[in-house]
Amino acid sequence: xxxxxxxxxxxxxxxxxxxxxxxxxxxxxxxxxxxxxxxxxxxxxxxxxxxxxxxxxxxxxxxxxxxxxxxxxxxxxxxxxxxxxxxxxxxxxxxxxxxxxxxxxxxxxxxxxxxxxxxxxxxxxxxxxxxxxxxxxxxxxxxxxxxxxxxxxxxxxxxxxxxxxxxxxxxxxxxxxxxxxxxxxxxxxxxxxxxxxxxxxxxxxxxxxxxxxxxxxxxxxxxxxxxxxxxxxxxxxxxxxxxxxxxxxxxxxxxxxxxxxxxxxxxxxxxxxxxxxxxxxxxxxxxxxxxxxxxxxxxxxxxxxxxxxxxxxxxxxxxxxxxxxxxxxxxxxxxxxxxxxxxxxxxxxxxxxxxxxxxxxxxxxxxxxxxxxxxxxxxxxxxxxxxxxxxxxxxxxxxxxxxxxxxxxxxxxxxxxxxxxxxxxxxxxxxxxxxxxxxxxxxxxxxxxxxxxxxxxxxxxxxxxxxxxxxxxxxxxxxxxxxxxxxxxxxxxxxxxxxxxxxxxxxxxxxxxxxxxxxxxxxxxxxxxxxxxxxxxxxxxxxxxxxxxxxxxxxxxxxxxxxxxxxxxxxxxxxxxxxxxxxxxxxxxxxxxxxxxxxxxxxxxxxxxxxxxxxxxxxxxxxxxxxxxxxxxxxxxxxxxxxxxxxxxxxxxxxxxxxxxxxxxxxxxxxxxxxxxxxxxxxxxxx
Length: 687
Ligand code: COA
What we know:
It is a single chain. By secondary structure, this protein is of the alpha/beta class. The protein has 3 domains: about 10-200, NAD(P)-binding Rossmann-like Domain (Rossmann fold); about 210-380, N-(1-d-carboxylethyl)-l-norvaline Dehydrogenase, domain 2 (Orthogonal Bundle); about 385-675, CATH 3.90.226.10. The protein has 25 helices and 18 strands. The strands form 3 sheets. An 8-stranded mixed β-sheet has the order 3-2-1-4-5-6-7-8, sandwiched between helices. Strands 9-10-11-13-15-18 form a 6-stranded mixed β-sheet, sandwiched between helices. It is globular. Coenzyme A binds near residues 451, 454, 496, 500 and 526.
């Protein structure tokens, strides 16, 4: 199948440029070394030179990176060999000649146009015409930085977010001179190395800094009414850490002065930075977990002003085509720590309320951008999935394949009802299109197809049997549709498929998996159970593999792709991601040529007995963790009832109700709270 360089899922783009072997990072301040650490931990074989004019800065940066690696080993995130490989091939230099032979030079020096131009002239004099050149500027347009290069087509801005070794977001600036294939290569490179590339237009401050800088600037302008601590407290409804706390952390005051002055000079005086930025070193605020008292009236004032600036910037970015609505929401969550994207927030508040807030904001901040269209026109088509149409290369009338990519990288593509609704919308939209033969569902990035149901949503379901069962039914709308879908849907599995992710794959009409992919139903270890099909579907669809699924359900045993293939669960194994998609598309066309996709059986099925529980001592998961006997009892009973049900819908309903039942146990509360608090659950206390 053919994918174009502009594919929505960066991994679907076909690119010819090879992976980099030698990278130079210019600037050993804060972010340059962090970028170097990301690159080296993603590609340990890479040779990387960290260049700075000051040797002490280089020494300090290399020591910092050794500290990162030591910490990763101490926390069990990396083994000693991986840490040694990350640090090997990492050198410092004060000499631009050391950049000769690099296939990518990435600049992260001071935010100064003249300086950056000098650096790039020095770089270009030493590297060949194919070397990629990028700048990490957060505000200066690529056209200004690179217009004097001999080969501007190989240069652009790649803007990282702090801390760059961990924060996945990277803005990749699409400017007119940039080679299309290089843009596709950069996006693909970032996605392959665990980052989230967001393509934005070449506007001053690009996309996310426009939001962040103005959010901070309006917060500072509010200091005539409220304290920094009070403003941060109000902001905590929307962000994990308030603007002043983040400014302290990032030593961000000079940056706001610089970037807002730039915006003011180019777009109007309303962007002028609050004068107080020039006189404050550190803001007096509290940790994000604490709250400063303030009156309800003042809280409402601050809240509306913060929402006003957030939406004003958001709508302006969309009106000017600086970025896409889905990228903006996602970028605000991932890069800036917003709990929900600005457009999601607008939906939650309602358009009438948002209009009132914006009108009030317009009065308080004359000149700031206002919507140019009805608010409903700004809503993204799909928020949580990317959609690509791969064209029929054979031209044999077999039809195109629509590839749906689950994209919630901040939660390993975990599923919730809004995401499943997005998938369903895409499928419905193409079902009557005679030129589409079917669908492939895959996950964003290399690590996870999908890490299951979104555990962040579970606390509200605890103790509410009917609510929990209904949530499972709502999340199942897509799956029930797939059971009777007129066109085939194939799951293309890379990395892990856990819990609800595996349940989604089970309802697709075929599974194709990369060899290193694996499956797990980890719910029992969380004190819950898989609610959207795993209690019923596997036993109807792959009765020969019933013992495997019984062990998976009751011990959270992992299933490797090769074993799933041997057991007939996975139809085909694939090598790299390109091979995976190629095979998945071929399978769609094969299934489409065979008529209606197969449906899970309606009739009751026989079950082998569950393995007996130990007579003495606790029941344990496959990895040795102690499990809840209460939860195991609910799972075993639910599976037996589902197997005995005489229709598919009754069998599924058994699973939803079992989920409702388990949600009311003390074990579920303990398991979910432990996951969210990043600790081991203790089911010995809960039964
Ligand atoms: N729901 C919500 N968030 C999830 C998630 C899920 N099912 N699975 C992972 N995430 C989040 C993590 O909380 C973490 O967020 P943070 O960076 O804000 O803390 C992020 O995704 C990355 O996961 P992390 O745990 O740091 O990655 P890891 O490689 O160390 O571990 C897993 C990966 C999948 C083993 C681990 O995340 C996990 O056990 N997830 C739960 C899987 C599960 O039980 N699924 C069934 C749910 S019903």
